[in-house]
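task queued by scheduler; priority normal; single chain, no ligands, no partner chains; default sampling; output format set to structure tokens
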Amino acid sequence: MLVDLPTGKTPGWELNGRVRGKPDLVPPAHTLHFRGRCQIEIGPHSFPETSFYEVQYHPAPVAPPPVAPPPFVQSAWQSQYSSYVPYGLGGQAPVMQHTSPLLSSLSSVTSITPNLINQVNAAAASNPTLANLLQIAAAGRATAEQLKTLGLLIQSLASPESSEAISAANSMPSSSAQPHRPVAPTPSVKEFDLVFQYYEASHERWILPRVPVICEKVADARAPGLTYDIVLTLALPSPRVTPTSPQIVTIRLRRPPPAIWETIWRWVGGEEKLNENRSILDNLKKKTQRAYLAHRIPQNSLLTQLQNAAALNYVMRPIKPGPIVAPKPKRKAPQRKPPQPTLAVQPQPPPQASETGTPAPVASASTSTLSPATPTPMPRSSSATLPDPKRRKIASKPKQTLPMIEIRCVSCQQTDVPLILGGRFCRPCVDSGKATTVYVPYRPPQNVYQQNIPVAPVYAQAVRPNPSISPHAR
């Protein structure tokens, strides 16, 4: 976001190249007064610890007007008028050898005094036409029209209002006559400026421009009645826009000291100037049409339509999912099959021939029932099956947990310190000479259950003869 900060030009006195311990060759033409610090907010930007200064400008020195005229002017005046009225003689003027328009124009002047000479010289210093006419007349190259004009100018200087001053000058001795000094113009004093300095850039100071501005006090919501904020509304000309369309900028000063408010109130110009600026800003707000940025749309049906179109109808998954922990498969216990009972097959007797020649009936194995206690012979071709002996549960041995070895100094037994000399001694023990202790290797203590572990007796399992197996099969 681009924001034009309401700052004027950088003053030329912020880097004056002063040398500590040496006086300034040229004294500064201003006086800087510190007023306080506070936090300022311009839109979404905040600048903490911003310093405010009041700059009072000194009146500019005015060069005094020259008292003595240029040499050529005085010499021209004396050479031109020495033949008319000799200075210091009360008698009649001698008869002139030639007649000129200048003599006729100066006929009304009774006497030429030093005061009149000073007046003509002062007028020639500020009037280049009079100085040029005097120079031409002194060189003897002036025409009749130029001499007439020069006489009229001198006659206007010797006006009737100054006749009393001329007569007073004639009555005074020549030694006490002093040259005429014109009144020096009153120097103009520039209005004071309000200067602020950012905390991040302590070598730069900026002038707050003198534009139509409104200052208001707003109560602080955190401590109403105790502290307040200052809201400044300025019509700032933007450098990116034409000068006829200024930009309205609002600056908020968070909890400033009273000295800042007093300085800003004087800088604005009081209540009368404040009302005038308020009307200017109101008219400016009516004329200025609000412009929205590319990503900013006014509150209308188009904004609602775009919001509905941008709504997601599905669940979004993160781009970088977290680690997936797969559950470990459970180990199933092996299922043991129950022992299947075996049926003993009764041996058949050898067939005997009957008298009729038909074989005797043979009893089927399914119809014959035998007692389990009675041993029955098995044929040699059938294999004997023994039941699985019951497995004995062996007690699981506890897991051996090795004790953790503590890393510590052999001498001072201090842990969590860097060790040297093979990881045995710390630096303070080595420096103090305690590293000469005989090193005894560390042996972890043995557990009691490792020393006397009872061994379960192992018994041999007796094999019982299977009654279903006939002794002939053995």
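post-processing summary
- The mean pLDDT is 69.
- Strands lie at 30-42, 45-57, 193-197, 206-207, 213-219, 228-236, 247-254, 419-420, 425-426.
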